[in-house]
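Possible regression after last week's pipeline update?

I re-ran a chain I had predicted before the update to compare outputs. Posting the input and the new output here so someone can diff against the archived version. Not blocking, just want to make sure nothing changed silently.
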Amino acid sequence: MSESAPKAFDCVQSMRQARSKLNAEMGDKNFEELVRWLRSYQYSDPFLRRLAERAARQAMPPAGTPPRR
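New output (post-update):
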């Protein structure tokens, strides 16, 4: 067998780093804090921004509805 070239990008390592960063930021937050964090997050990718805006519109309760507990 021939040796493969060294990886230019390690997907598994990248995913683990991203997961560790998110866990450090969100690990001890309750549900309401997580919702606020997700809604305040500014996505740089236009597709992700539109997707987040659409999800926020669908998740908003009708006016006058008490918050979930």
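Follow-up from reviewer: compared with the archived run. The mean pLDDT is 81. Marking as no regression found.
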